[in-house]
Design brief:
- Strands 5, 6, 8, 9, 11, 14, 15, 16 and 17 form a nine-stranded antiparallel β-sheet that branches. Strands 27, 30, 31, 32, 33 and 34 form a six-stranded antiparallel β-sheet that branches.
- With 478 residues, the chain is α+β, with helices and mostly antiparallel strands.
């Protein structure tokens, strides 16, 4: 399909080129259709629009002049003119603005309330606290009974399988994910409840569900953001929006639906469908290898990008850095820490969590023997303003707030530029060359992507993955 301009499209070419086009004397030409069918005359309409535009411009100019006069006289200040906005850049460091669909605006920490552990997967059901996954028998103790499934009847579940059933306590109702976390096929009633979903119909039944921080059906979106911070994912539809806080979507996550008209919570779901024991590696009982115990974290950021240093989430690392170094600084490995990685091999898509912030990364095993993930090295870190908003600082004091121009000034012309316009990405690459051993050659890569056409940064991606750690490689700018 060819490209069509703003006023073109399939079928428009005949209109532009033949007797039906502008200026034609044909009875179907512009101007005649309006008169024949009583439609508004386009020229008159255009004239009216122009007059309206001039009026708006005049009113805007009058407003600006009046505002300047009031500011000069000291009657009002700049914040009053601009609705209390912070003209120095908005929220303070580490906070973000939330305009809630035309409802009240608030400011919140993207990491959420540090006192609230959303990923403990604890909730209250009719005043009783449960931590998911929990045995169905625990719910029975408090008067809950399994009802009909959301689909075909099921008597058993296979290892790792989950299925949706209703739960009843007299007239109270919620919906629950039952999951088999064992190694054998099990009766549904012997499985765990791994997830709870709650909406307006359940609320009408008299049931009550409360998530960490007191979030419940009917809570304002503002309260959700203040408690949990920026969601991992956000989507919208005609009825409102969905805020997803996820370690893994639909597996280990919390979903909050917000009603478009009211700005209030209209549906809630919490799921912690852990891997079955059959899918988990056996616990590794060996000690950490020397490459891990011998790692010494840098005391501060290096002077240049070649130092491979980064401050991430408030701690300084030299990449690649042991998983253990991140754990010491409060990170939790949400992926299987006992998954074995062959010597000299890599593994991808590992999830780390610090508070309510979840990131994913890749790891590499630098030992001479097979090691579990917990004894491997992290090879890249990422900042993303929309999903993984962990504060990051690079040599030279550059952060996610610096802007693309500052990166160009500090690190020089990018090695490569990808895309154009609002889809740009800039990459700086430094190749480390070892003259004695080609295995020691590796590349450091820093990628920065702006928001749209501007200078504001959307994402930062830093990767450094040597093949061997004891290399004598010398950095060479590409």
């Amino acid at each position: 399909m060819g490209y069509y301009g703003r006023d073109q499209g399939p079928g428009r070419q005949g209109y532009e080129d033949n007797k039906w086009g502008p200026g034609s004397q044909d009875q179907w030409g512009p101007g005649n259709l309006e008169r024949m069918y009583g439609l508004p005359d386009r020229k008159k309409a255009a004239s009216k629009r122009k007059a309206a535009q001039i009026t708006v411009i005049a009113l805007a100019a009058a407003f600006v002049i009046a505002a300047i006069a009031l500011i000069g006289s000291g009657v009002i200040g700049l914040p009053a003119i601009f609705g209390g906005a912070d003209l120095g850049g908005g929220a303070s460091a580490g906070s973000a603005g939330a305009s809630v669909g035309g409802h009240e605006e608030t400011w919140y920490d993207p990491a959420g309330d540090p006192e609230i552990d959303l990923y403990a997967f604890t909730l209250e059901l009719n005043g009783v606290e449960f931590t998911l996954p929990a045995p169905y028998s625990e719910f029975v103790e408090y008067g809950w009974e399994i009802g009909k499934p959301m689909g075909e009847e099921r008597e058993t579940l296979s290892p790792g399988e989950s299925y949706f059933f209703s739960l009843y306590n007299d007239d109270n109702r919620v919906y629950a994910y039952f999951v088999n976390n064992g190694v054998d096929v099990m009766p549904v009633k012997d499985c765990n409840v791994g997830g709870i979903m709650f909406d307006e119909h359940d609320a009408a039944s008299g049931a009550k569900v409360v998530f960490p921080g007191g979030i419940t059906f009917g809570s304002p979106e503002n309260d959700v953001l203040v408690c949990y911070g920026r969601p991992s994912y956000e989507s919208s539809n005609s009825s409102g929006k969905q805020l997803n806080y996820a370690i893994r979507l639909a597996d280990k996550d919390v979903q909050i639906d917000i009603d478009e008209k009211t700005g209030l919570v209209s549906r809630m779901r919490m799921s912690n469908l852990k891997l079955s024991e059959a899918e988990r590696a056996e616990e590794y009982t060996g000690s950490a290898p020397g490459v891990v115990t011998g790692y010494v974290p840098p005391g501060a950021l290096g002077d240049s990008l070649e130092s491979c240093t980064v401050e991430y989430g408030g701690a300084v690392y030299r990449l690649p850095a042991p998983m253990a170094a991140f754990v010491e600084n409060g990170w939790v490995l949400e992926s299987d820490e006992n998954l074995l990685v062959s010597a000299g091999d890599s593994s991808f898509g590992f999830y780390l969590r610090n508070g309510n912030q979840v990131v994913y990364t890749n790891i590499h095993n630098y030992a001479q023997t097979q090691q579990p993930a917990k004894y491997c090295f992290i090879t890249f870190v990422e900042y993303n303003s929309e999903e993984r908003s962990v504060p990051i600082e690079l040599p030279g004091g550059l952060t996610e707030k610096s802007g693309v121009k500052a990166f160009n000034k500090a690190y020089g012309k990018p090695t490569k530029t990808y895309g154009t316009g609002s889809s740009r990405e800039y990459e700086w690459r430094i190749r480390f060359e070892d003259e004695e051993d080609w295995h020691g050659n590796y590349t450091l890569s820093l990628s920065v992507r702006p928001v749209g056409w501007g200078d504001e940064i959307k994402s930062i991606w830093l990767s450094c993955e040597p093949v061997i750690l004891d290399s004598n490689a010398v950095p060479v700018r590409e």
